[in-house]
Automatic annotation (TrEMBL):
<protein>
    <submittedName>
        <fullName>Iron-sulfur cluster repair di-iron protein</fullName>
    </submittedName>
</protein>
<keyword id="KW-0479">Metal-binding</keyword>
<keyword id="KW-0963">Cytoplasm</keyword>
<keyword id="KW-0408">Iron</keyword>
<dbReference type="Pfam" id="PF01814">
    <property type="entry name" value="Hemerythrin"/>
</dbReference>
<dbReference type="Pfam" id="PF04405">
    <property type="entry name" value="ScdA_N"/>
</dbReference>
<dbReference type="InterPro" id="IPR019903">
    <property type="entry name" value="RIC_family"/>
</dbReference>
<dbReference type="InterPro" id="IPR012312">
    <property type="entry name" value="Hemerythrin-like"/>
</dbReference>
<feature type="domain" description="Hemerythrin-like">
    <location>
        <begin position="83"/>
        <end position="232"/>
    </location>
</feature>
<dbReference type="InterPro" id="IPR038062">
    <property type="entry name" value="ScdA-like_N_sf"/>
</dbReference>
Amino acid sequence: MKLTNKSTIGEIVADDFRTAAVFTKYHIDFCCKGYRTIEEVCKKRDIDEAILIEYILDAKGSTVNQSFDYKTWPVDVIADYLTKTHHRYINEKAPIILQYLNKLSGVQGAIHPELHEIHTIFSKSYLDLKAHLKREEMVVFPFIIKMKNAQNNGNYLDTPPFLSIENPIATLKEDHEIESKRFRRIAALTNNYTPPIESCNTYKVAFAMLEEFEKDLRKHIHLENNILFPKAIELEKTFEKAL
């Protein structure tokens, strides 16, 4: 659809669910008051139309580049990419999804009791993921970067407190399996993220964002389990051989 200041909020979100995050940021109700135009909400909330439209267009154009050959990247670059891309995605999107799920379970929970379980599972997932990301960013990734720097500079590598990178990696992979099971359950509860017929925009956006979240998490786990972690383990072994 062509975006103008006469476009209604509901139409914009229905056309591309990713724009819902923009309206949520500005506390604009795209569900019950989705009939309002950009012009109307901007006047009421004293928002610059051009800026809001720019944010909407950015959201509509946000895509993840699928052409990268991650296997050719050095471990420090992969770790940095994961932090700036996938970790940031979780921290930005999960709170918004929780807002929608909280609203849905409160309004629609009596008719669709599965919403309560979905909300509970996702809440636990986000809580655990925050701790998981912290372990990666504070412990595992810094050591991986330290190993890469030592290799580049020909320096000696001290034994870490966890003895071997394989130990924290094993724990992280267990976390990944738990999250995979959780999202298999969410997919089942949502009928593969298919909202009920005649459901409101909030319902549709929540399910669409959950599906996108799972896809991003699946790629995130793939990059770590199948590319970064094996590379890090092999890198560590080069220092053992040098002793």
